[in-house]
Design a protein that fits this description.
Blueprint: E1 2-3, H1 6-9, H2 13-16, E2 20-24, H3 28-41, E3 45-50, H4 62-70, E4 76-84, H5 87-93, E5 100-103, H6 110-124, E6 130-135, E7 144-145, H7 155-165, E8 169-172, E9 180-181, H8 189-198, E10 203-205, H9 213-221, E11 224-229, H10 231-244, H11 250-272
GO molecular function: tagatose-bisphosphate aldolase activity; zinc ion binding
GO cellular component, one term: cytosol
Organism: Murimonas intestini
Length: about 280
């Protein structure tokens, strides 16, 4: 495994018009399913931890597990902390081996978001750790969400934010939502185009699960460099388990869950164009 930062793994995505998948995983089955897919398709990959996983895995344990399991693989891997809502969580995470962190203060007033993000970049930059932040608001963070009046990322504000914080990647709000959609989301691709034209750094799409394949392709074409995926992986694993639960034991169910994650990861890697980019 070639361990790299977020800045390194995304460096040529805008030029070559592909996106690196960010897969949020919380157990060995999901981790191996994703790594197997990346290895088979020669794709760089971002393996991410979310704060919501703390009941099954602590943040301090995550990088070590990824490094141990990933030792036999040869593709570039970024170990990422996703959606850290507090500086304190990032302080706990950075000594443990993460190569990238995301601070999410997008629900705070603009100047407060800048202040917190600057504090994170001041902590991480001397350690060689990349920093992602979010501007605008990707709604949801629940199991079921509906399209609503999203707070889209403003182009002028984003320009100021990037300059003042020195971040390596920016998560933008263009109409997606976390969780499972009740209807196909209505994206503002025009806003994405405006952001991509103004900003040189990689742009990140959160709340991607549930988009159509063509929506994904369009977002990547127009400037998205990183796409976060969790719900689709979890649903793929759940579907495979449900199909076999009456006939298989727990060990075999773990195996079919891994297979489901692998198949979904392969689909996303091909869809985002990162195949053979390792």
């Amino acid at each position: 495994m070639e361990l790299v930062t977020l800045k390194e793994i995304l460096k040529d995505t805008r030029q070559k018009k592909y996106a690196v998948p960010n897969f949020n995983v919380f157990n060995i089955e999901m981790l191996q399913g994703v790594l197997n897919a990346a290895q088979d398709l020669h794709s760089p990959v971002i393996i991410a931890y979310g704060e919501g996983f703390k009941d099954v895995m602590q943040v301090e344990d995550f990088p070590g597990i990824v490094k141990t399991v990933g030792a036999k693989y040869t593709v570039p891997v970024c170990i990422h902390l996703d959606h850290a809502f507090t500086y304190e969580l990032i302080e706990r995470a950075v000594p443990c081996g993460f190569t990238s962190v995301m601070i999410d203060s997008s629900d705070k007033p603009f100047e407060e978001n800048i202040r917190i993000t600057q504090k994170v970049t001041d902590l991480c930059r001397p350690l060689g750790i990349s920093v992602e932040s979010e501007l605008g608001h990707v709604s949801g963070l629940g199991d079921m969400v509906e399209n609503d009046d999203h707070v889209y990322t403003d182009v002028d504000t984003a320009d100021i934010f990037v300059e003042k914080t020195g971040i390596d990647a920016l998560a933008v709000s263009i109409g997606t939502a976390h969780g499972v959609y009740r209807e196909i989301p209505k994206l503002s691709v025009d806003r994405l185009k405006e952001l991509a034209e103004r900003l040189e750094l990689p742009l990140v799409l959160h709340g991607g699960s549930g988009l159509t394949d063509e929506q994904f392709r369009e977002c990547v074409r127009e400037g998205i460099s990183k796409v976060n995926i969790h719900t689709d992986l979890a649903m793929a694993a759940k579907k495979r388990i449900e199909a076999d639960i009456a006939e298989k034991g727990y060990l075999d169910l773990c195996t079919v869950a891994q297979e489901g994650v692998y198949e979904e990861a392969v689909k996303k890697i091909k869809l985002f164009g990162s195949e053979n980019k390792a």
